[in-house]
Amino acid sequence: MANESMLKFVGREQAYPAKRDATHRAEDFQEIAGRYAVAAAEDQAGRCSQCGVPYCSVHCPLHNHIPDWLRLTAEGRLREAYELSNATSTMPEICGRICPQDRLCEGNCVIEFSGHGAVTIGSVEKFITDTAWEEGWVEPLVPGPARGLSVGVIGAGPAGLSAAEYLRGYGYDVHVYDRHDRAGGLLTYGIPGFKLEKPVVMRRVERLKAGGIVFHEGFSVGEDARLDELRQRHDAILIATGVYKARNVDVDGAAAEGVIAALDYLTASNRKGFGDTVEAFEDGRLDAAGKNVVVIGGGDTAMDCVRTAIRQGAKSVKCLYRRDRANMPGSQREVANAEEEGAEFVWLSAPLGFEGGEAVHAVRANRMRLGAADASGRRSPEVDPGGEFALEADMVIKALGFDAEDLPGLFGAPELGVSRWGTVLVDSRTLMTSLDGVFAAGDIVRGASLVVWAIRDGRDVASAMHKWLKNKAKNERQAA
C-alpha cells in the first residue's frame, strides 16, 4: 500500500494551495492561500521519494519526521500523521505557515534537486494540524505528576511557550511573565495576519492556559518585579524574551516625524486587527493610508511592513535594499508575494538621509554595487559613485533587524552575563546563564533568528532545566 501511494513525483506536478488573487488579498489581512482539499493533500504528500537520507528532516531545526508523516498523509492516515508531526513540534501548524521552507526543508528536498519541484511540505504540515484541530484530535495539555517545584518563564514568545509546555508536561508549576497584554510575542504582534491569522496563535495559548500554565500578562520584569524577586518565587527561571531593540540607520534626518521602527508599525497594525484602540494609529502616525511609504531592509520583517502598508491603502510602497534580489536575507516567496500585491523593490540602494525638517518628505539614497565577498560568503555592498537619487516619502519604516535590549539593566541584574552584542551568555551544555538556576533560550541567546529555532531552543532548554531541577531536588533530599 505504502509503495503504491508514494514516489509520484515523476508524473504528478508540484501544486501549492491556490493563492487568492493579489488585488483582492491586498484588501484584507486574511491568509493569502487556502488549504488543500483532502485528495490534493494526499496527492502532494504522495510525491515524496522516501529517500534513505531525508535532507528535509536533516535541515529542519526540529528534525521533524517529515517523510513518515508525508507517507501517512498519502495513505489517508491523517490522525497518525498529525500525531507524528506533533511529536517533535509544539506548533506544527504555525511552522507550516511561517517557516521559510524554501530555505529549509523544501529547499533541501531531493526531488527539488532532480528538477521535479520540492514536495510542498509546509502546506501539508498546515493541512494536517488544521484538520486535527477541526476533528478534535489535538489533545489537551496534561500535566505530569506534580513535583512541588515551580518555574518562571520570562517571555511568552515561541521559545517561552514551547519550554512552558514541556515543563508543564514534566510536572512543574509554570508561570509565564510577559510585558504584552496577550501572549505569543512576535507570533501575536510581529507577524501580520496575512501570514499567520491570530486565532491560530490564540488557540495554542488557550490550550496552555487550560493545562494549568499561569500567564502574567502586562508584566514587565524590572518594573513589576526584579529578576532576583522572581528567583525567590521560583525554583528555576527561564529568560526567553527575544530581541526587540530596533537597529537604527545612522543618517541625517533619522529623528524626523514619519521615520518609524518596523515593530512599532507592525504591532499597531496587529493590535487594530484585534480591535484595540491604538492612539498612534488613529492619529495617523502608524497608519500608511494615503502615504508614500519607503521600507528600508531586505529581511522578512521588511516584507511584512511592505505588505502591511499596501493593505492599509498606501499611495505607493517601495522597498530599499542595499544588495540585489539574489543576496537578500528574506524569503524569495515573500518578495514574489509583495511584488504581486504592488510593491516596488529598489535593489542595490542604501539611504543617505531623510529630508523634510520636522516631518519626512523624501529619502535620499545612494546606488550601491556588490564588491568582494565578506566572511559569510555574501558580496559586500559598496557605494556606486555618482548614483545618488531621491524618493518621495511621507513614511519611512526602518526594518534593519533587531538587537538585544540591556537585560542586566532592565531586570536590575547587573551580574547577568551578556555578550558584546547584549545577548545572554549560557553554558553550551547546561544552557544556564551566569546566575545559578537561571536559564536562557531563543533569540535572546542566538540573536534574531527563526521561529522554528526558538521552538527547538525551548524544547532543549526545558530538557536541561528538568535535569537540573531533578538533581537539585535529589541533593536537597539527601541533605535533609
From TrEMBL:
GO terms for molecular function: 4 iron, 4 sulfur cluster binding; metal ion binding; oxidoreductase activity. Residues 25-136 form the Dihydroprymidine dehydrogenase domain. Keywords: 4Fe-4S, Iron, Iron-sulfur, Metal-binding, Oxidoreductase. SUPFAM superfamilies: alpha-helical ferredoxin, Nucleotide-binding domain. Residues 151-458 form the FAD/NAD(P)-binding domain. Signal peptide: none annotated. Transmembrane segments: none annotated. The keyword 4Fe-4S applies. Pfam families: Fer4_20, Pyr_redox_2. This is Glutamate synthase (NADPH) small subunit.
